[in-house]
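Let's practice the habit of predicting before peeking. Look at the sequence and jot down your guess about where helices and strands might fall. Then scroll down.
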Amino acid sequence: MITMEKKYFMGIDIGTFESKGAIIDNECNIIATHAASHGMENPKPNYFEHDAEKVWWHDFCEISKALLKESGLEAQEIMAVGSSALGADCVPVDENCNPLRKAILYGIDARATSEMEWLTEYYGEEQIKKWYGRPLCSSDVMPKILWIKNNEPEVYAKTYKFLTGSSFITAKLTGNYTVDRFLGLASFNPLYHSDGTVNEETCKVICRPDQLAKVMNTIDIAGYVTSKASKETGLKEGTPVIVGTDDSGAEAISTGVLQPGDMMIQFGSSLYMILCTNKLVDDNRIWREEFIIPNTFDISAGTNAAGTLTRWYRDNIFTYCLEEEKNTGKNAYELMMEGIEDIPVGSMGLITLPYFAGERTPINDPLAKGMLFGLTLSHTKQHMYRSALESVGYSIAQHFNIFHEHEVKINKIMAVGGGTKNPAWMQMIADITNKTICTAKVTLGACFGDAMMAAMGIKYFDDFSELSKIVKAGETYTPNIENHKAYEKYIKIFDELYVATKDIMHKL
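Done guessing? Here is the structure:
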């Protein structure tokens, strides 16, 4: 029974195809949850967009009201709010935080290839590497802003601020334009100095310094719910709102990535990895930045296809599973797995390159293409689907090899996201990588981390280490050594396949 002695905190995360929210109490028990689905626009090849107002803000308002209703709580009982949103997006807004165009999404949107090439030539490869530790990639916001400047000058001229997803939500709630250090210093690099102040020199060819948001810490109070936002969200006017962060950062916190050696693998629409470290690691194939936890860093990496790949199979190959889902209520993805576990390791010599939307790490090639290699008349759609699931594991293994090269320790690996609902897939990942994979006991994801960080924002929790007592592991997947040995030759072929076909891909 809910009592007035308890404290309550709200967290809402805006994702690629779904937004989720939660209210937790001061012991981090989940009081209420709610989700809202939405689409993603793909108007041209390599272009991926959301309508920030109709998707991001609409979902936030819907979820906020639903959480209050489902929990039975009054708005004044919510002590603080935290939000996160899908990665490094770019949405230009006017002085009233009205979007001036649809948001250009994170690394899956690769429209700014020419801008990346121009910036690399303008600054020089060495300077780019000094800033990023790698070449420019489609996850960086600087080329996206330059694309707007080059291609939509009328939008650029009207832009008051260039925001990312979490910045937009926080601005709509509070009227203040902020971005957290974790997301801002990495994704908007090198438009900020390391202390968070705007780098006026590097802004010269990109944007005006005043068009950028203020850098703060993730759990700092960005402001308070305005009268207008109160009416739209149901939250009480004056409720504290933390700066917030991207979905992956919040999800990492929710799984217990709280000290060096802790790692999260997020199985969402795309796949994202965050490994907390005690040092910056420079490597062209991966990303690095300061982490949310004070005095730590992280290695981060992301593939463009994970859930989007399984969704593609569902919508194009396993359409009958969607029909059966409508008729029986059984989940289509569960139906797609029937017979998969009977197929041997390596899918009878069938290897998928999962680059259906280009690829981020470790190849950083927006022009990469998907491939089914080794098809024979003996293969079925089940073989194809298992091969797709295995390909995600092969990509993860490539990243582990990079971590090993740099002698970066991994103490624990926590898997989160929709993909963890598929135990056979998680076992494949463990077998391919030869690593023990755990799922989080609480699998809500980023919104759970948002709510916990909201509690930290008002000092209910004094330190991130307190959260380690709360976050517990759920299922554990131990690698099967025989399966791992059988996978080794397929991993080698996977690693060689892109290199051998890269030039041909680019001709397409």
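How did you do? The longest strand covers residues 18-25.
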